[in-house]
From TrEMBL:
One of its GO terms (molecular function) is zinc ion binding. Residues 412-427 form the CCHC-type domain. This is Zinc finger CCHC domain-containing protein 4. GO terms for cellular component: cytoplasm; nucleolus.
């Protein structure tokens, strides 16, 4: 429920709360839903703030200047003309990240450009475009081919025919290029904030979308495209796959995904009365509790999703760091078959595939490792913990050996003494 006068170029703003120390209730403000870095989007407004006419006008001007040079419709037309050109006339400006028609060459002469853009290149725009690198929220981490292929094979084996690709351009692209081959029945619709993709896909294949505020830039027509896509075959055999930026706000994402799932649910014919639209939400394992808070029906799979351009998170066999990124899904875990040749095995008690290092703990009665390493059970904590942790009697829980003990370090908020927190302050104990 955010008034549209305070839209930024990326759609309706979100309401945030700023709390400073000692303050009971924070002051509420609107900010851009997608860019949490002020440098990328300067939109900011206190909730109770009156905005002057001049500032509104300035904001409108700012929004106008931050619109893309062509509309999606125009880009589709341009693409049609582009593919008619002989190879020698197909250029892509790397600076403007734009396919160029010969009449436009002049304007880009002092820019770096690529020549002889082949059909194969047009079919893999994620290779042609450079990955966006905004550190906070908009960084693009592209699936390694192995992981992308695994996801697609899994989707096909599970019998899905349509994939709503939310922030997964590389998966979309893999599906699109196979769709031109015979016998390949899977279709995909890409929803992404990266408007550069509108140069390569029609309005039935790509919607410019902000997954932090469920905003379709193309208005009702785009929303309808998405709805139609979900409605085909009474909504059967469709799955949503999403790989949001990790800096993203889980709450905002969950709210948008619930809206997409609700859109699917409206298709409701006889079949899926109490069902949810199947979802793969790809996200780091340390967000597990946050995701489950919003989606109790989800569970986390052990599969480690790998990326091409994520230096830290390459598939690690020896020494190299392993990817912390996992698949969260509302499908029955036993259906998610993980590749045995990569060391995953089926735990018959947990009824799911787990990492090779993930040992079934008899006491927890579950395969407890989250990161793929073998975890150990702590009888005092009554749970399994990371192999590098030890039980600290001071903190009364497990922690890294060289941690600084919380209880002896911190000062109580109420009495100012060290050794306990506000909740256990002895000066409050008899009130
Ligand atoms: N691994 C995926 C890419 C994930 S990177 C793949 O290879 O296909 C995150 C993706 O989400 C990027 O494509 C990025 O453009 C998109 N994205 C980032 N912020 C977004 C937003 N607010 N709304 C919609 N998509 C967004
Ligand atoms: Zn913005
Ligand atoms: Zn198990
Ligand atoms: Zn255990
Ligand atoms: Zn412990």
């Amino acid at each position: 429920g955010v008034p549209c006068v305070i839209d930024c170029p990326l759609g309706p703003a979100l309401l945030f709360v700023k709390t400073s120390q000692g303050e009971e209730e924070g002051r509420r403000f609107y900010a851009c839903s997608a860019c949490r870095d002020r440098k990328d989007c300067n939109f900011f407004q206190w909730e109770d703030e009156k905005v002057s006419e001049t500032r509104l006008a300035a904001r409108e001007e700012y929004n106008r200047n931050h619109q893309p040079p062509f509309t999606h419709r125009q880009n589709v037309e341009r693409y049609k003309n582009f593919v008619l050109l002989p190879l020698s006339k197909r250029r892509f400006c790397q600076e403007c990240q734009q396919l160029l028609l010969p009449a436009e060459w002049e304007k880009h002469l002092d820019h770096q450009f690529l020549c002889d853009i082949s059909t194969a290149q047009l079919k893999s725009p994620s290779q042609l475009l450079y990955p966006l690198e905004n550190k906070k929220t908009n960084a693009q981490y592209l699936f390694a081919d192995r992981s992308c292929q695994f996801l697609l094979d899994l989707i096909i084996d599970l019998g899905f025919r349509r994939v709503l690709s939310v922030g997964t351009p590389r998966l979309h692209e893999m599906i699109q290029s196979k769709a031109s081959q015979e016998d390949f029945r899977v279709r995909s619709l890409l929803l992404d904030i990266d408007f550069r993709y509108s140069q390569f896909y029609t309005e039935d294949e790509f919607c410019h979308y902000n997954m932090f505020n469920h905003y379709f830039f193309g208005g009702e027509a785009a929303r309808e495209t998405c709805r139609k896509f979900l409605y085909q075959d009474s909504g059967e055999r469709v799955i949503m796959v999403t790989d949001p930026p990790f800096g993203g706000l889980v709450e905002a994402l969950a709210s948008s995904f619930k809206k997409l799932m609700a859109m699917w649910k409206e298709t409701e014919k006889e079949g899926h009365n109490n069902q949810e639209m199947p979802v793969f939400w790809i996200f780091p394992y340390f967000f597990e509790s946050r995701i489950l808070e919003f989606f109790p029906s989800f569970s986390m799979m052990d599969y480690q999703v790998d990326y091409d351009n994520h230096a830290l998170y390459k598939h690690g066999k020896t020494g190299r760091r392993q990817s912390p990124v996992r698949i969260f899904t509302n499908l029955t875990p036993s259906m998610i078959v993980l590749p045995v040749e990569e060391g995953y095995r089926f735990c018959t008690i947990c009824q799911r595939y787990v990492s090779s290092g993930n040992q079934h703990c008899e006491i927890c009665n579950s395969c407890t490792s989250k990161d793929g390493r073998r975890w150990k059970h702590c009888v005092l904590c009554k749970k399994c913990v990371k192999p590098s942790w030890f039980h600290c009697n001071n903190c009364n829980c497990c922690a890294l050996q060289n941690h600084t003990c919380e209880k002896t370090d911190a000062v109580c908020f109420v009495c100012g003494k060290a050794g306990h927190k506000r909740s256990t302050c002895p000066s409050l104990s008899h009130t």
